[in-house]
Amino acid sequence: xxxxxxxxxxxxxxGLTALNNVSLHIxxxxxxxxxxxxxxxxxxxxxxxxxxxEIMHGEIIFEGKAIQNKxxxxxxxxxISRTFQNIRLFQNMRVVENVLIGTHINTEYNFxxxxxxxxxxxxxxxxxxxxxxxxLKAIGLEHRMHDYASDLSYGEQRKVEIARALATGCKLILxxxxxxxxxxxxxxNLLMFIRELRDNGYTxxxxxxxxNVIMNISDRIYVLDYGVMxxxxxxxEIANNPEVIKAYLGGVIEDAVS
Amino acid sequence: xxxxNQVIDNFxxxxxxSIRKNRIIFSVALLTVVAFIPALGLPSYILRIGVMIMxxxxxxxxxxxxxxYTGQVSIGHAGFFSIGAYTSAILVTQAGWSMLPxxxxxxxxxxxxxxxxxxxxxxxxGTYLSICTLGFAEIVRMAVLNWDTLTNGPMGIKxxxxxxxxxVEMTLRNYGAYYMILVMLxxxxxxxxxxxxxxxxxxxxxIKEDELASMMMGVFTMKYKILSFVLSAIISGMxxxxxxxxxxxxxxxxxxxxxxxxxxxIVILGGMGTMRGMFLGAIILVSFPEALRFLEQYRFVFYGxxxxxxxxxxxxxxxxxxxxxxxxFPKGVDPDKIARGFNNSSSxxxxx
Lengths: 258, 352
What we know:
The structure holds two protein chains of two kinds. By secondary structure, chain A is of the alpha/beta class.
């Protein structure tokens, strides 16, 4: 059974069909990429997966449970978390607090535990603080944990976003253009980091425009164009797929060539 | 001006850093000083201003929860203040309750209204929410004004008994009122501190920073927004109950739009999302009109001028700097040790 199974989902914004009969599946421990020209519906697909947008038709099965049109918090609880195309960190909170927000959903104490500082509150706070620090160490930002998120560089902020998503205890992590705005060195580091994620048992589903990243890292690639899934396959298959080339570079008129 | 702001911030951040290290000693010292003020034999006029400052500091601490931390600006907190004052006054004068249970009831009923006002936050945000809160305060005022049988309408409620605790009357003359409100202020501060420094407070602040991101990380944003309103209403209702007994007379004009704005001004002037700012803001804005009495009707022009200058040159509030001291982990967590990787479980499994 696949970890995530999307079957013919349809999403319309008014008269615009953003996603038309899109199906895909992701196996556990895979790195799967989603590519496509601007406006193809990639981020919409992520928004549907995380419960921001609702769908009219189709089915999304995660670990055997239907998750379509569920509230975002329920989906996080089940184990899907994400980062954003434009960084959405809590800028005026410390780096470690940002990660602690990720642990919020699994921090199990209530209002009165906090008010009376019960043992449960103490234990949970210690446990989550340790989790957060360990995650920051894993992404190599333990020296910045006391800083405010807005003081970090762009690449560091992207990493903190990933750490925050991991802190939710997710199994599947959705990365929306993680390499956007990174230089060569940073994106090379990112590649290594994403592989490390996979080796640690996470499943990764990412949207990316940087072909260098995509071709190096993906186990499989899906290509979306105008809301339709036009191709699926291994990196080398996608690179040579005429449909994909047409979608990216435009078609070739036969007469003009001859 | 930006540089000046930074210099001020650095200066105060250093001071606050050293205060934070000796927080308990500092609080006890400050509290002792405040507790000895009545012993100076000041005229009761001054003590009365001191009590008003503390009432408004409590109100500001309350409003700070939704507005300063959660980012939901309310300009209708006079409504909760009013509900608390009238509930307690009516229960004591008409139903013959004693003051402490009446105060608890006042806080509870204000809390229920806080929940009701929190509900529209499900649908609206930003300016629209502020307008809702404004409408709420006006509805409360109109209800109080016209519900003659219960509230005595525009005549107000007279001869409300002094605050009494276990049969002892708390008046300005015996300093009881002063110490009672001081105890209430300390309790409120501790309460707010405990809530804000927990996952609840983190959730509040994340909503202010980025509501969508907060939701996507699993925070039930609706629940927390409503909670912030309820907590705030309870605190304001309690302050209202004390106010009614302290002033011994309330009427609908005690709780107008001006009152809401004054509370909000304290929060903004002191520094949204800080507790220290609430105390300073209340001291400045409550004592200002008194200190400037010689200016007669022009004092409100001056008051407006101060706020305008502040918004221009120091929008973050007087005490609204970011703390420079390291993040405080709960006791029992040694961040450096974990970061160095001496914790054995982390070396085997790098992620979590």
